[in-house]
Amino acid sequence: MDFVAPSLDMAAVMPIVLVLGAAVVAVLVDAFAPPARRAGINVVLSLVALAVALGWIVGRAGTAVVSFNGAVVVDGVALFAQAAIVVFTALSVLLYTETRLDPAGDPFTPAGAALPGSELERVLTLQRVRQTEVYPLTLFASGGMMIFVAAGDLLTMFVALEVLSLPLYLLSSLSRRKRLLSQESGMKYFLLGAFASAFFLYGAALVYGATGSLTFAGIDAAVSGRVGAEPMLLVGMGLLAVGLLFKISAVPFQFWTPDVYQGAPTVVTGFMAAATKTAAFVALLRLFYVALGGLVADWTVLLWVVAAVTMLVGSVLALSQTDIKRMLAYSSIAHAGFLLVGMVAADTAGIASVLFYLLVYGLATIGAFAVVTLVRDAGGEATHLSAWAGLGRRSPLTAAAFALFLLSFAGIPLTSGFIAKLSVFAAAIDGGQAALVVIALVASAIAAFFYVRVIVLMFFSEPAPDGPTVGVPSAATAAVVAVAAVVTVLLGVIPGPVLELATTAAEFVR
Known about the structure:
The protein has helices at residues 10-32, 35-59, 76-96, 119-126, 134-148, 154-171, 179-211, 216-224, 231-247, 256-263, 266-291, 296-318, 324-344, 348-372, 391-394, 396-410, 416-430, 434-460, 475-493, 496-505; strands at residues 65-67, 72-74, 375-377, 380-381, 469-470. It is an all-alpha fold. It has one domain.
């Protein structure tokens, strides 16, 4: 048998190589650079690598490549998602640099291995030692997400899932304040994530047993050539769905989300909520639309039920939350349900609506969590809702920015969130899912209540005399909030160009 060399199109994967290469260099910087210069070098390295990667992605717009023997598929959907992930990562890296808000320094503990409250931790805090490992960890997670959205087979998708997940488990445990809560969140995320990965791997084994292939094109060919679906294939599909539904925080796999969002450093929470959800949703789209397209009648029923329950559970449970980060966590769960509404449409319009929704939701989410870092008391971030009473009087700009992001989450007109929800609902109606849209409208009405409740609290309540203060952010944090706010308004008023871009990109290569 003659050996056939695999096709390796390095130009197609160069953005991934740039990000992962920068992560490796950042590790070397942490090992050999002087401690005082590590953070600055890693920030510049990360931002330059991400900027070059974004430029490369933009330059390849309109191209589609299947490479590495089908293991990597860089098509319009992958390029759109990779661009969004790179932007979210860059904004998060800028938030990592914030050192003005906390007297002890940046948002991260000086040593993740130090016991909370130990003498070592106290000494390192007094010495203002900075945690610089967060930069390579974030780049590794981002690189894994970029592979995840371009995976062309189940094995590559599983490896990418682990590459993006392991750094996030560590990042969730590195909060400078509330160390025990942060370590608990990281442990919960790790244990439940390990179970989800096991489900995914077992599902991949069953799908391989039923179809004889791990590539999405091979699975699609095997599934489409059969009259009926075998039980093994359906069970495998369900287990694969579990692994990915966990990552998007869909019910009933959402239990980790409130605890992890609350315990993780807030800047990491924003990164996870925006970038991880984008990567997981695009991977879910690729798996079901490409590999399991022949089972569309089966998986639309599954996702219909999951979407309905996720929207209602996320919206209803958010009503009872008194912590702003937990409220945003349940809001994230509800938005996962709204995104699934677009996915259930099972057509190109559904893909385009989901891509647009992921972009605008991610930007607003990073902006919202950036604002959360500004409201502080003696213990650090003041996340209890009572601390936000009268915020509009103490800091009108901060309150206005947060209100804008909440209105976008609620889907109020003239914000990008309204256009995003309108697009997924329209795609679902065109796809014959009007009943699901009715449920989505009910969930949206419920969700609007707790968003408006916070706005009323900020602008129409008296501030406590000894209440929290609003810190003066660095230029980087202020820029992130400003960019997120401006884009939220622009895409609510002039959404056409980005919607057209998402529609053009919404075509999977098999």
